[in-house]
């Protein structure tokens, strides 16, 4: 495009919206910045957002058609090059020339300074794509002409797109005319200049300069030349155009890569590039900042001043094969990634489906190559399973997470995320994955929220080291963003949180400990502190942060412990109550956890009561013997529970507590008095558990206590009556089981528990026992005559096999039977008040049912009339026919 444009000043300036009227299918969205050369805007059309670049026509005689034809040719040539976005629509009118292409949010210049920052493998992946793109373009005879970071677009999954091919810009510039550079190439006003040195011509001839100056003076009065730009008229025949070469693009790309690998340090501005041409400047200092030695050599070669010394893009790819660029870039990854930009475009759900099916193969390809490299480098670190290359797949996954629609797709995405997390570094997990997991924690699908909690716990558990900057990630980010889950409307979500909150607390504690264990002294703040003072300061700081962490966890735990659904409380008891005790410490373990747990024994849910006894041992073992006075009535209550398997669990808990010496002797004696009668309980599991408890007590007691207290309690339940010499050791469970009398028959036990006149029966049996005890040997006992109701009960028990020996057993279980009966009656009364009668109150339904009467017989049926008469006589409220109810 002729360089005389630099000196033309418009007679009237219009906004970019003025020119969008040429595009009736596009509506203005926002301004992307304008220069004297082009006005740029973002617009909306039916296919999405587009970028519109407008060149306002100042001189109608200027030939724009050749440039339009050339851009049309470039569009056709690049239609199968996946890393390019040429202009898709080109429009010429009397007012303007308009270029339209797809809008891409970020360019590479913006991406360098955007979190999460690009790491080494990602930068090399970008460089590889750019070289592949240039190679494909150059093979088609297409040259860009203005490669810079602003013209390199990048997607959210790090796919590179080269845009704004500058065939319409001048190929050669004069070194003493910076206005042309500013007009055509410095659109960002950063003054960076990545134009190849061979594109700059020598100083203008004196005659041309004089001619230009004369023209400027003669034209200034008419206002057609900018007053601030004298001597800028240069005829188009003086500058060659259309002879771009691959070497020019290679130099520009080398400068762009240098800026990429030095975190935004520009190798050249305009003045430095001119000095570089004359040999007065060398970007060596900038290039030395590049850490990767292979990339440093590559960029140095691309930025050579001699164009003939620069290689082609294909040659650079071959040279850096298996050096800067891993082999799987060439053989697998590039071709695989191209699938996701193919036409027709895939939906986010489809992308996740494909990625889930391919993720294992991707991991195998990348890790196999990395293992071979580590073997070649004699690496003996077998514990390091972190994959550098798999980081490239993370943006592909996370870029579509927020756009997924179906529950199955989100679950698949979380499964892929869990799979990849095993091969990712802690920094990648915290910076790249964690924000998306927190986002999905508020998903509308309960299944997704459950999977998020499980995935989050699993991923955080993989982290073995943490930086100081991430030390407060739990109290400042994770826990506050998960606090709403404790109040989630879905029970399964709260259950998942209850299942994993202990693990999350453990991980948070580990993060805090790692932070202080790896903390190095600060030379500025610790200069005046000796080691003792520094340790004291760290201890105080650690305790302060631990307390803040405990308070956050306590809020969720307290909510879960008082959840209205027993399944949530049961899950918390079963999956982590002991670890929470360790996390909170003894004082809070007693105040927060135990104080809520003791209320569970009054709940009608038998599974919750069972879970209490499963969990109480872990809590008590950590809190210590101080909780013994609290536990005594709870354990006694468990021995007389209305559910037999709860009694069994209570006995098992007693055995474990006795092993840990957490029960005082006085408490043990009281509980033994209630546990020993269970030796004749009809349930075999209860009998075995009772034997186990008694044996544990015998092993932990001294000989005097066993002989004087324990054995007298056991004698009524043993086959060896009165002769202690025949009694084998009580410490042996098998021996004690062998010595026990036969249990009370099950049919009699069940009948007694349900018997309303149980107390009267006990009085009668006591009288019969007294009668037998005072009767002489050989004489039959004389029993008092029973009441009619009681005699019926007694006869029923006799028919079930009750003998005088069974009567003795019933009296031994007297207290136990009475307590069990009371609890069963209470449970029955509670359940009957909430019992579902099977009736539906239509007035309580959320919709109003419509009743339609349908007669199944004709009204003139002669045989039906007598039937109708009978129905009326019976005063039936319903009309003749069958009544159907449905809901709309």
TrEMBL record:
Q: Which Pfam families match?
A: Pkinase, VPS15-like_hel
Question: What UniProt keywords are attached to this protein's entry?
Answer: ATP-binding, Kinase, Nucleotide-binding, Repeat, Serine/threonine-protein kinase, Transferase, WD repeat
Principal EC category: transferase
Ranges where the Protein kinase domain occurs: 26-329
Q: Which GO terms describe its cellular component?
A: late endosome; nucleus-vacuole junction; phosphatidylinositol 3-kinase complex, class III, type I; phosphatidylinositol 3-kinase complex, class III, type II
Q: Where does the record place a coiled coil?
A: none
Where do the HEAT repeats start and stop?
433-471, 478-508
Q: Name one GO biological process term.
A: macroautophagy
What GO MF annotations does this protein's record show?
ATP binding; protein serine/threonine kinase activity
Give the matching Gene3D superfamilies: Leucine-rich Repeat Variant, Transferase(Phosphotransferase) domain 1
EC numbers listed for it are 2.7.11.1
PANTHER family found in the cross-reference section: PHOSPHOINOSITIDE 3-KINASE REGULATORY SUBUNIT 4
Protein's UniProt name: non-specific serine/threonine protein kinase
Organism, scientific name: Larinioides sclopetarius
């Amino acid at each position: 495009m002729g360089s005389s444009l630099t000196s033309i000043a418009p007679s009237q300036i219009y906004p970019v919206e003025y020119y969008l009227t040429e595009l009736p299918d596009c509506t203005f969205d926002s301004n992307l910045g304008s220069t004297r050369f082009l006005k740029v805007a973002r617009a909306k059309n039916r296919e999405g957002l587009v970028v519109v670049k407008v060149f306002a026509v100042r001189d109608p005689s200027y030939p724009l058609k050749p440039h339009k034809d050339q851009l049309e040719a470039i569009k056709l040539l690049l239609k199968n090059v996946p890393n390019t976005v040429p202009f898709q629509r080109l429009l010429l009118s009397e007012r303007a020339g308009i270029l339209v292409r797809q809008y891409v949010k970020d360019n590479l210049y913006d991406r360098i300074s955007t979190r999460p920052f690009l790491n080494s493998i990602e930068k090399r992946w970008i460089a590889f794509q750019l070289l592949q793109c240039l190679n494909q373009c150059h093979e088609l005879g297409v040259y860009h002409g203005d490669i810079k970071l602003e013209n390199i677009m990048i997607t959210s999954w790090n796919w590179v797109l080269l845009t704004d091919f500058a065939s319409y810009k001048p190929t050669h510039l004069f070194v003493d005319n910076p206005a042309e550079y500013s007009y055509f190439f410095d659109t960002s006003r950063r003054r960076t200049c990545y134009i190849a040195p061979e594109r700059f011509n020598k100083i203008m001839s004196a005659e041309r300069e004089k001619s230009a100056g004369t023209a400027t003076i003669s034209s200034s009065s008419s206002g057609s030349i900018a007053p601030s730009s004298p001597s800028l008229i240069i005829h188009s025949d003086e500058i060659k155009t259309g002879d771009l070469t691959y070497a020019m693009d290679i130099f520009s790309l080398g400068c762009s890569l240098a800026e990429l690998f030095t975190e935004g340090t520009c190798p050249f501005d305009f003045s430095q590039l001119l000095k570089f041409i004359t040999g007065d400047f060398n970007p060596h200092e900038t290039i030395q900042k590049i850490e990767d030695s292979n990339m440093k050599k590559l960029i140095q070669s691309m930025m050579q001043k001699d164009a003939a010394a620069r290689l082609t893009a294909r040659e650079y790819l071959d040279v850096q094969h298996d050096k800067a660029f891993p082999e799987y870039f060439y053989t697998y990854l590039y071709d695989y990634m191209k699938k996701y930009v193919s036409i027709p475009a895939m939906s986010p759900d489809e992308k996740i489906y494909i990625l889930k099916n391919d993720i294992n193969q991707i991991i195998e390809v990348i890790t196999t190559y990395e293992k071979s490299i580590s073997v070649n480098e004699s690496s003996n670190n077998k514990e390091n399973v972190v994959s550098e290359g798999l980081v490239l797949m993370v943006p592909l996954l996370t870029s579509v997470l927020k756009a997924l629609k179906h529950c199955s797709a989100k679950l698949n995405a979380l499964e892929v995320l869990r799979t990849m997390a095993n091969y990712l570094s802690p920094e990648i997990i915290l910076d790249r994955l964690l924000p998306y997991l927190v986002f999905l924690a508020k998903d509308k699908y309960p299944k997704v929220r459950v999977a998020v909690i499980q995935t989050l716990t699993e991923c955080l558990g993989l982290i073995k080291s943490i930086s100081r900057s991430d030390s407060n990630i739990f109290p400042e980010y994770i826990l506050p963003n998960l606090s709403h889950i404790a109040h989630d409307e879905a029970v399964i979500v709260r259950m998942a949180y209850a299942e994993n909150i202990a693990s999350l607390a453990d991980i948070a504690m580990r993060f805090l400990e790692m932070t202080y264990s790896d903390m190095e002294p600060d030379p500025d703040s610790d200069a005046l502190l000796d080691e003792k003072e520094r340790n004291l300061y760290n201890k105080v700081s650690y305790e302060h942060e631990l307390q803040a962490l405990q308070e956050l966890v306590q809020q969720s735990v307290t909510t879960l412990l008082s959840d209205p659904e027993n399944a949530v409380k049961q899950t918390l008891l079963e999956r982590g109550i002991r670890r929470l005790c360790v996390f909170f410490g003894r004082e809070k373990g007693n105040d927060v956890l135990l104080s809520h747990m003791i209320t569970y024994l009054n709940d009608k849910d038998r599974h919750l009561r069972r879970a209490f006894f499963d969990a109480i041992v872990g809590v008590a073992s950590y809190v210590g013997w101080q909780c013994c006075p609290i536990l005594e009535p709870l354990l006694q209550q468990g021995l007389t529970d209305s559910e037999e398997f709860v009694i069994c669990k209570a006995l098992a808990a007693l055995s474990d507590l006795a092993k840990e010496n957490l029960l005082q002797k006085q408490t043990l004696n009281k509980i033994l008095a209630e546990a020993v009668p269970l030796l004749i309980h009809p349930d075999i599991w209860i009998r075995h558990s009772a034997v186990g408890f008694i044996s544990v007590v015998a092993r932990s007691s001294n000989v005097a206590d066993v002989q004087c207290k324990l054995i007298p309690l056991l004698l009524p339940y043993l086959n060896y009556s009165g002769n202690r010499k025949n009694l084998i050791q009580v410490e042996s469970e098998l021996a004690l089981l062998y010595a026990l009398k036969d249990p009370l028959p099950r049919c009699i036990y069940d009948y007694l528990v349900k018997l309303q006149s149980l107390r009267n029966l006990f009085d009668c049996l006591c009288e019969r026992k007294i009668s037998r005890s005072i009767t002489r040997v050989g004489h039959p006992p004389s029993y008092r005559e029973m009441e009619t109701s009681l005699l019926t009960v007694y006869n029923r028990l006799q028919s079930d096999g009750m003998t005088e020996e069974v009567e003795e057993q019933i009296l031994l279980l007297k207290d136990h039977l009475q307590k069990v009966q009371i609890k069963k009656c209470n449970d029955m009364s509670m359940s009957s008040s909430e019992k579902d009668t099977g009736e539906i109150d239509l007035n309580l339904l959320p919709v109003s049912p419509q009743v339609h009467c349908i007669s199944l017989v004709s009204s003139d049926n002669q045989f039906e009339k007598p039937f109708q008469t009978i129905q009326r006589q019976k005063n039936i409220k319903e009309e003749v026919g069958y009544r159907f109810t449905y809901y709309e």
